[in-house]
Every structure is written in structure tokens, then in C-alpha cells.
Amino acid sequence: NVLLGLKTPDFFLACKRSVYLPGWFLKQTLSPLLSSVNNSVILLPQVAGDEETPGAAQSESPRGEEPINLQLTNAYEYGQALNGARCSGNTAACAALLASTPPERLPHFLSTQLDGNTISFIMQALDSHLLEKDPHLVYQHLHHLHTAHRFSVVLMLLEKDERRHMTQLFEHLSAVQSAEFTKNDVQNLANKYI
Asked: What is the pLDDT of the chain when averaged over all its residues?
């Protein structure tokens, strides 16, 4: 069987790689494939998260994409929102998510989602959207991010392009004139990353 141009086992592997697919899509596309398989599969019901809650903060997407809920209470919800922004390449939504996150909570929220792609995506969002608006917030996020669980392991496994994004962010941050931090502070912080 071929599904979306992938052989069936490859499709399941792709789904395990943090790709979010709604329950209705899985049910419609996988039911014919799973009827011939003896293993049990449990499809989780789709949560009524599409309904807008009055007063809930959401990011506005410039490209007409689904807005991202910014009132997140746990690492799972944060990871889902971050992964949604990353999969769609929406750095503005990631920046809005980071702007609504207290810097000291960031390591906790990223504890289950930390990988090279996520760090690189966060660096791009910080550099392209938040640095100009709030350099102190960028500095605070970077100050706390390196304390996240598994950070040092993920840092060792970064690819050249991901390291380039990181270096570029620290170069731009050190060029900012700020009363909250000095170039020396930025250099000391950069030494923990680069």
C-alpha cells in the first residue's frame, strides 16, 4: 500500500516524527490500511479545541493560518503549539508564543520538545521578530533556555546551518544597545551556546 507517496511503514514513521494529524484525517486515511493489520489501534477523539473561547489570547497569523492559543498551562500544550508553528514555518507565531511565555518557564515547557530543529526555529523567531521589539526578552529567554533538560546533548548534535542561526542571533543581540545587559553579558551567554 502507498499513502501520500510513502510506503505504509514509512508513513507511520513520519507520523511519529512530531507531525500533527487531526483524528478525522487518521480515521479516513488509515482505516482501510489498518483493517488488514492484526494490531489494535486506538484513535483519540478530536478535542473541541477549534472552538474559540471568549477572552482567549491567540496569535494573529499574517498568512491566514490557524491562530495559536497563547494561554498554555503545561509542557504538552506548549509543545503542540510550538510544533504547529514549526511545521508551518510560522516564525511570527513562534515569536508570539515566546513573547507570551515567562522566560523562567521556557525550559520546563521545552523539556519534552527539545531537539535541534526546535532550537533553530526558536533562534530564527527570536532573531527575526522579537529582537527588534524587545531585546531584553530575547536575552532573558536565551539566559534560561540553556538550562533546559537535554540542552547540552541537543547542542552537541546541531547541524552547521542550525549553529549559523544561533551565531547570527548572538551577533545581532550583541549589537543592541541596552541598559539591561552589556556586550560582555551577551558574550558570556553566547559561550554557553556556541
From this structure: 76
